[in-house]
Amino acid sequence: MGLTLYRNARLVTLDGAAAWGLVEHGAMLLDGSRLSWVGAQRDLPRGLAVEREHDLEGRLATPGLIDCHTHLVYAGDRAREFELRLQGASYEQIARAGGGIRATVAATRSASDDQLLASARRRALALMAEGVTTVEIKSGYGLSLEHEARLLRVARRLGEVLPLTVRATCLAAHALPPEFDGRADEYVDAVCAWLPRLHAEGLVDAVDAFCDRIGFTPAQTRRVFEAARALGLPVKLHAEQLSDQGGARLAAQFGALSCDHLEYLGDDGVAAMAQAGTVAVLLPGAFYFLGETRLPPVEKLRAAGVPMAVATDHNPGSSPTLSPLLMLNMACTLFRLTPEQALLGMTAIAAKALGLADRGRLAAGQRADFAVWDLEHPNELAYRFGGGNPCRLVVNAGAERTA
Ligand code: DI6
Ligand code: FE
Asked: Whose CA is nearest to atom 4 of ligand 1?
């Protein structure tokens, strides 16, 4: 395949010293699925055999968005629980009464593979329409070997049927399934026994757990992490979402790629994450939708040099959003990230949260994953909210997909 040139773009490379890595009158050269040259058009090497040329007409080009935390594969919805919460029931109370994650598990187990794929595909298309080129998808609504495997296979399949990179994370330790009531330790034994089988089928890129009062204890989480480590799989953690369990400290001991949520993260957790190089994944959708008032310690994370990612956390219970752009806005309005930090959080730092070094910036050698926007300046990505999608074009590994 010959070279492809995209020219006349305002490049938001997120690379180099300039704010946003902004390059006016920029051009990108693609060699197949990779960027082979990125810079100001006047510096473009002469005498190249360019096969195809695209004029971006002065539009903004950013790295493709990376949604590094979603639960995209499930059946049913939890709109009724939303009503109950508005009448005063808490997320935790609903979960303890057998609703919450368990309600979605029941719906998911009775859905067919085709139904799960079709609904996940619709959700993925909505994310892609706003510039997403890589998505992480967690299992966690199956909670048995058979059903967790089914969810992970659907996630893998999605990456085959769509121009989208899918990273699959096993979150079998999401909640206790009803058949294990009162036997959480036995359930954790089971999860540890499933992991090698799921991994042997090539279904697992990382392992996650929900460490909280309504999830699993740090001791149980540690056992899941040990099973992951024995397989050479990286770990992540839903940590300190509803209470401080010391989950982040534990995850840092295992060199976790990321700790996610973190509203109740304490100073020791911040320090442990900084030392381990663990990414903090901020999820403003869940914070907003659950009416949480405790903010993640963004100032402290920033001061300690912990990289911060931003994701949708799409799931039916705590964050039923399909708008990564709205999350950029909320990361700024609710968590006080700067618009540039928010975009970095959904590109370069999100890539780090997934252990991917080949994407997240516009630079030679990176994957040719980018989005083109009808916007003047990148700060508008976080400034606008709720509709009027400005995404004009999405390119994944060099292949165009008109949004
Ligand atoms: N925390 C969350 O916000 C999601 N999972 C988790 O551990 C919510 C999952 C759900 O309510 O269905
Ligand atoms: Fe989540």
From this structure: 318
Cα separation, 37 vs 21, in Å, equals 15
CB-CB contact of 248 with 262 (8 Å): yes
Pocket of ligand 1 (CB under 6 A): 100-101, 104, 174, 210, 238, 241, 286, 313, 315-318
Strands 165-173 and 132-138: parallel
pLDDT in tens, 88-114: 999 999 999 989 999 999 999 999 999
> Each residue of 73-89: pLDDT tens digit?
999 999 999 999 999 99
Tokens of 340: 């540039």
Rounded-to-5 percentages of helix, strand, coil across the chain: 40, 25, 40
208: Cα within 13 Å, side-chain hemisphere? 33
CA-wise closest residue to 39 among 57, 63, 15 = 15
- Find the helix or strand (DSSP H, E) in which 202 lies: none
What pTM, to 2 d.p., does this model score?
Answer: 0.98
Dig out the tokens for 385 from the structure. Answer: 């909210």
Residue 218, judged by CB atoms within 10 A of its CB (0-12, 13-18, 19+), counts as middle
Return the SS3 of 70.
coil
- CA–centroid distance for 197 within its chain: 25
Q: Are 382 and 343 in contact (CB under 8 A)?
A: yes
333 Cβ contact list (under 8 Å, min separation 6)? none
Ligand 1 pocket test, pick from 101, 220, 240, 260 with the greatest ligand atom count within 8 Å of Cβ, gives 101
